[in-house]
């Protein structure tokens, strides 16, 4: 099958279209014929060896952690899904014609496969982060980096959890987008603290950092580092709470699918690229200007 892979760490030019062996599902997994695969900034971080391992790659890597497509193989012990079902979900090596999913849900009828492909990673991250923060009814949440994929997911999911006021930081060009999602937009940068205080006269109960910048100011706004959860700043320079991927909350993809089916959740596709243009997709992701999901369309 065709897949995008890289054999050495580097910039987006290391990504190449290659012929690789097809994967098959193990117990508890399914395989899909991929329609579309979501691109996440983390894919580019891994590609560029952000952990500075300094070691050469032992074998080529096919990037990707989310996709939507048609079920074409079902692993041992799997129930509730049939061959031919349209699903979306999470699994490794999704920049490919076929991919194995470890976690999935039926694709909502309200979404295209491009939208569904990019629903899993940012959506699950937002579900996890809001649960860890304990965002609840009547509360005020500040989302820093609100126009990005995670930020947009967090705004919609905070509304579902009953938050009454959601303030989002973004560039001015994205303020209308935030209003449409139900957030009060404010600019980040020099006047971040004043801007948020003007928008939230009663203060904020929780802060979700999806940008990794101005974390000290976020703590000043919250009045307590324990009210700030960062998805990006793991430096421990400021003692905020952090959260990273790994164990995603059970049922989170089903929750996202149910909300999407009811028209209460969507995934904004900012740009699509054919598989062969994965380098351009990574360049756009790394520019931080996409304001929505970047998706590779496979067929
Ligand atoms: N820990 C985890 O589990 C986890 C999971 C997923 C993602 N992440 C991380 O979370 C971050 C966001 O991911 P994403 O997919 O939402 O990325 P994204 O779609 O590229 O969005 C990034 C957003 O950051 C905003 N931004 C840029 N510079 C900023 C600044 N100085 N201050 C505030 N906001 C700024 C941009 O908004 P404007 O365009 O409006 O300027 C942009 O919309 C990434 O670093 C990603 O690696 C962590």
Architecture overview:
The protein has 299 residues and is an alpha/beta fold. The protein folds into 2 domains: 2-119 and 267-297, Quinone Oxidoreductase, Chain A, domain 1, CATH 3.90.180.10; 123-242, Rossmann fold (3-Layer(aba) Sandwich). The protein has helices spanning 41-47, 113-117, 120-133, 149-160, 175-181, 192-199, 215-222, 252-261, 278-287; strands at 2-5, 16-19, 30-39, 66-74, 86-90, 98-101, 103-106, 140-144, 165-169, 184-186, 206-209, 228-230, 241-242, 269-274, 293-297. The strands form 3 sheets. Strands 3, 4, 5, 6, 7, 14 and 15 form a 7-stranded mixed sheet that branches. Strands 10-9-8-11-12-13 form a 6-stranded parallel sheet, with helices on both faces. α7 (215-222) links the parallel β11 (206-209) and β12. The longest helix has 14 residues, at 120-133. The two termini are 12 Å apart. Residues 40-42, 122, 125, 144-145, 147-151, 169-171, 174, 188, 210-213, 231-232, 243-245, 288-291 line the site of NADP nicotinamide-adenine-dinucleotide phosphate.
């Amino acid at each position: 099958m065709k897949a995008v892979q890289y054999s050495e760490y580097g910039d987006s030019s290391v990504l190449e279209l290659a012929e690789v062996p097809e994967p098959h599902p193990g117990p508890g997994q399914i395989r899909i014929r991929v329609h579309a695969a979501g691109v996440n900034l983390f894919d580019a971080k891994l590609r560029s060896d952000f952990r500075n391992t300094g070691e050469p790659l032992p074998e080529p890597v096919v990037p990707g952690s989310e996709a939507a497509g048609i079920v074409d193989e079902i692993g041992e012990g799997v129930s509730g899904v049939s061959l031919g079902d349209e699903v979306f979900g999470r699994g490794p090596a999704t920049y490919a014609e076929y991919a194995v999913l470890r976690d999935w849900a039926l694709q909502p009828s309200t979404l295209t496969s491009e939208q569904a492909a990019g629903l899993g990673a940012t959506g699950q991250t937002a579900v996890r982060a809001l649960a860890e923060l304990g965002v609840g009814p009547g509360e005020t949440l500040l989302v820093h980096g609100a126009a990005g994929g995670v930020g947009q997911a967090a705004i919609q999911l905070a509304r579902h959890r009953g938050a009454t006021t959601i303030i989002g930081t973004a560039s001015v060009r994205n303020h209308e987008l935030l209003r449409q999602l139900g957030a009060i937009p404010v600019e980040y940068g020099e006047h971040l603290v004043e801007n948020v205080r003007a928008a939230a006269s009663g203060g904020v109960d929780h802060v979700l950092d999806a940008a990794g910048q101005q974390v000290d100011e976020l703590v000043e706004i919250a009045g307590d580092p324990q009210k700030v959860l960062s998805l990006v700043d793991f430096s421990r320079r400021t003692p905020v709470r952090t959260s990273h991927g790994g164990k995603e909350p059970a049922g989170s993809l089903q929750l996202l699918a149910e909300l999407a089916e009811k028209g209460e959740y969507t995934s904004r596709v900012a740009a699509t690229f054919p598989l062969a243009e994965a380098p351009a997709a990574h360049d756009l992701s790394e520019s931080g200007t996409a304001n929505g999901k970047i998706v590779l369309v496979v067929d």
